[in-house]
DNA sequence: CGTCACTTTGAATAAAATCAAGAGTCGTGG
DNA sequence: CCACGACTCTTGATTTTATTCAAAGTGACG
């Protein structure tokens, strides 16, 4: 339960960067966001930020690391429903719904801003921010559908390939890629719980992708050696992410 | 491409009934809804109502039959992402997003209301309706997450059991159950594309549920012979549907 | 009464889970 | 600096689950 004061200059906040990708922001908008991103805390891996059954309020923004939405079965099996990567905001103003149907927790060490309900309301006063947050939420929902397709109708190798392509697009949008590689600070077990497989099977499927020369992984950095071919394998069409940049660099 | 004029008295519209389940409606609200439900058309099974890539606008309401959201792979594989049962409304006012990322189509013959953008805007003028629609949308999203859990982390038999439990709750909310049975006007192939399996495997799994005495199916009517035990098998917790009625009748 | 779509069944195959053990990694504390 | 312990990753052998392929059987409906 490390809790460090969020010091240092907010490094051109990823949330800001992401929302700017949806449309021009005014000075006042960026100022409000900067304020939010200044108030972050470092959270260790494996920490729940809000739990199933809790009453949701405010928002949670991730500025570093990977967090996720997940549910557990009684036997301990976990299904991850979404990744929250830097720039992603989890809007807990669910208005009508007063209970979380899932848990949000960190997969890696994360830098996180917990946004109080009043602050969240203030943010939504800014039309451009409100629009951006709404668009982000709609994209999250489209992503959820894509994940359902992924698990329901793609093979193990395809599932991983698709996930890696998606992450390249999402992380590039917040400037966290270098070429076709990015930090993927999660374990194979996490990947398994994301794609509905076993960690053993993930391991073998990763091996296959490596053998095919499609990816490389050293330490926690993932490189897509041939994004075009990887996208083809996964049948990846990035439209649902609503980013105008072309897929492969 | 049968298109019949939507005659006859709107039979206490399922949309109305569903939204009433979320909170009291004023006279004016119900009147507006009644108007909508009067303008329905009969649509044959297998008809796309709006396609992936189309520009979404207005709303689509289903008052009879089963429709669904789905996507296709290049090889023809289909993944169904959601069911639209009577009372369900598909809000296409996606504001920011200007392309459908999936298709909405009928699984059975359906009675459907296509709601023009202006009409949709009028409906949203009514605060109670707007709230109801918003709540419905949030529940749809929670349902999507539950489906991801279903496909990712449950066995074939469990997936079907879970789906059948969910449908009992949803259809009961609009008065379309009698006891623990309801019309399920879809094929085993549809069930397969819903649960990420093969129709052959669905057939065998259904057989297992029957043999266990958990369900019965004559013609298109499904009966949950022992809802409590079925829910236990599926680990079904109806919280995400936000209906206060207890699960088993 | 024939057709077409759907359901059911069997046999062979493929994909993924399970079980188990060993090797690598990393942070911690002596 | 090294050793320890806790994860994580890797690999093999085996079993289970699900798909594929194929062929009847059933039923609704014109």
TrEMBL record, chains A, B:
It comes from the Bacteria. Residues 154-228 form the HTH crp-type domain. Keywords: DNA-binding, Transcription, Transcription regulation. GO terms for molecular function: DNA binding; DNA-binding transcription factor activity. Gene3D superfamilies: Jelly Rolls, Winged helix-like DNA-binding domain superfamily/Winged helix DNA-binding domain. InterPro entries: cNMP-bd_dom, cNMP-bd_dom_sf, Env_Response_Regulators, HTH_CRP, RmlC-like_jellyroll, WH-like_DNA-bd_sf, WH_DNA-bd_sf. PROSITE patterns: HTH_CRP_2. The keyword Transcription regulation applies. One of its GO terms (cellular component) is cytosol. This is CRP-like cAMP-binding protein.
């Amino acid at each position: 339960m490390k809790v460090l004061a969020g010091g240092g200059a907010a490094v051109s906040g990823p949330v800001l960067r992401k929302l700017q990708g949806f449309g021009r922001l005014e000075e006042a908008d960026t100022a409000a966001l900067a304020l939010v991103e200044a108030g972050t805390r470092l959270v260790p891996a494996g920490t729940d930020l809000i739990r199933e059954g809790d009453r949701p309020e405010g928002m949670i923004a991730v500025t570093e690391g990977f967090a996720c939405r997940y549910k557990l079965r009684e036997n301990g099996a976990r299904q991850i429903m979404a990744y929250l990567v830097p720039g992603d905001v989890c809007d807990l103003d669910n208005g009508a719904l007063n209970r979380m149907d899932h848990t949000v927790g960190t997969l890696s060490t994360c830098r996180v801003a917990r946004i109080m309900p009043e602050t969240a309301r203030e943010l939504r006063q800014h039309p451009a921010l409100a629009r951006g947050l709404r668009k982000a939420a709609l994209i999250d929902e489209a992503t959820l559908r894509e994940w359902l397709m992924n698990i329901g109708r793609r093979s193990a190798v395809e599932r991983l390939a698709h996930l890696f392509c998606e992450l390249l697009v999402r992380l590039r949008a917040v400037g966290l890629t270098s070429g076709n590689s990015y930090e993927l600070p999660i374990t194979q077990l996490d990947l398994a719980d994301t794609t509905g497989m076993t960690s053993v099977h993930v391991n073998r499927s990763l091996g296959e992708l490596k053998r095919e020369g499609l990816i490389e992984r050293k330490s926690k950095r993932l490189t897509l050696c041939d994004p075009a071919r990887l996208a083809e394998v996964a049948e990846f069409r990035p439209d649902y992410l609503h980013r105008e940049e072309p897929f492969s660099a």
